């Protein structure tokens, strides 16, 4: 499995963006819409995006695998956000200037408290020893997923710390279209970011599981290639998303040779998401837990439910049922 860029920060759009005075399709209560112009972002041009490796942008929640108390742990995304007073000032500035830039923060007083175990994401800038917010007013960071924290119960369901493994969805080895649900050692995923997708994440765009039998899994970022991606051209990309069966994805993330990540989201192009059956959900899938599947049968999380399905193949990912 090809190991690509770790997602630690907001990824820039492949086109320069503009702000429209209309309700956001992506974020509730946001009364403006960020849309792409037809001008390619200079950051993308400088990173030579035309030679980049295009992968599917996944609709879930971002996770990270890193050491915690001496062992590999799954970490959940937790951005440090402004308190009510600071957010009010920030939104007023945003509305007045139609931009988030040049706002002055008091980092020590303007932000909500976070757990002691919280760490800032890589490449977050610091000032006087304090991490400082990005242009959206957030300080990206991570918090370890512990079984005792019910807030992250769906994260917990895909890891077994005693066995040191995580439930992962990845491309099959010998079939371009086949997806594989497997268990990978957390140690092998260390320092990678992944997307948690499933029943109770972001409206379940991929139709996984049900309320009675929720299904979640981790997908390493950059692991699902986009086949025959279109050139970086506004009209060609928009047509591809609307007309090509490979375009039934939330977006594209380009992994450039210099390590830069660039993205496009359907919402940038004024397109709906999800819009019918998604490409990922329609792909065939197989459960491959290997010889260790017996050991997983006593796991507390989803591994015990997948254990009896070892070796079973499904015509579509969304058809996986226990």
TrEMBL record:
Transmembrane segments: none annotated. Its EC number is 6.5.1.3. It comes from the Eukaryota. InterPro entries: RLIG1. It catalyses: ATP + (ribonucleotide)n-3'-hydroxyl + 5'-phospho-(ribonucleotide)m = (ribonucleotide)n+m + AMP + diphosphate. Keywords: ATP-binding, Ligase, Nucleotide-binding, RNA repair. GO terms for molecular function: ATP binding; RNA ligase (ATP) activity. GO terms for biological process: response to reactive oxygen species; RNA repair. Its cofactor is Mn(2+); Mg(2+). It holds the Pfam family RLIG1. Functions as an RNA ligase, in vitro. The ligation reaction entails three nucleotidyl transfer steps. In the first step, the RNA ligase reacts with ATP in the absence of nucleic acid to form a covalent ligase-AMP intermediate and release pyrophosphate. In step 2, the ligase-AMP binds to the nucleic acid and transfers the adenylate to the 5'-PO4 terminus to form an adenylylated intermediate. In step 3, the RNA ligase directs the attack of the 3'-OH on the 5'-phosphoanhydride linkage, resulting in a repaired 3'-5' phosphodiester and release of AMP. This is RNA ligase 1. The lineage of its organism: Eukaryota, Metazoa, Chordata, Craniata, Vertebrata.
């Amino acid at each position: 499995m090809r190991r690509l860029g770790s997602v630690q920060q907001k990824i820039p759009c492949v086109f320069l963006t503009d702000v429209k005075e209309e309700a956001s399709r992506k974020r509730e209560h946001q009364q403006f819409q960020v849309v792409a112009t037809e001008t390619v972002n200079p950051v993308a041009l400088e990173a030579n995006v035309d030679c980049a490796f295009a992968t599917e942008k996944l609709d879930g929640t971002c996770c990270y695998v890193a050491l915690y108390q001496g062992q590999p742990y799954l970490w959940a995304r937790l951005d440090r956000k402004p308190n009510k007073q600071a957010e009010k000032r920030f939104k007023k500035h945003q509305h007045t200037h139609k931009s988030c830039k040049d706002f002055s923060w008091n980092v020590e007083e303007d932000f909500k408290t976070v757990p002691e175990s919280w760490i800032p994401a890589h490449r977050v800038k610091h000032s006087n020893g304090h991490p400082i917010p990005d242009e959206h007013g957030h300080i990206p960071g991570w918090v370890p997923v512990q079984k005792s924290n019910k807030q992250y119960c769906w994260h917990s369901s895909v890891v077994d710390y005693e066995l040191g493994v995580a439930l992962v969805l990845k491309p099959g080895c010998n079939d371009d279209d086949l997806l594989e649900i497997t268990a990978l050692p957390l140690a092998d995923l260390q320092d990678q970011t992944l997307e948690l997708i499933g029943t109770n994440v972001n409206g379940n765009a991929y139709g996984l599981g049900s309320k009675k039998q929720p299904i979640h899994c981790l997908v390493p970022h950059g692991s699902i290639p986009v086949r025959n991606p279109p050139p970086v051209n506004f009209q060609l990309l928009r047509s591809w998303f609307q007309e090509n069966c490979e375009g039934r994805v939330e977006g594209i993330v380009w992994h450039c040779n210099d390590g830069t990540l660039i993205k496009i989201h359907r919402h940038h192009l004024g397109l709906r998401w999800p819009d019918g059956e998604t490409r990922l959900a329609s792909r065939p899938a197989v459960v491959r837990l290997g010889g260790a599947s017996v050991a997983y049968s006593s796991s507390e999380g989803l591994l015990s439910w997948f254990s009896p399905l070892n070796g079973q193949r499904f015509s579509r990912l969304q058809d996986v049922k226990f």
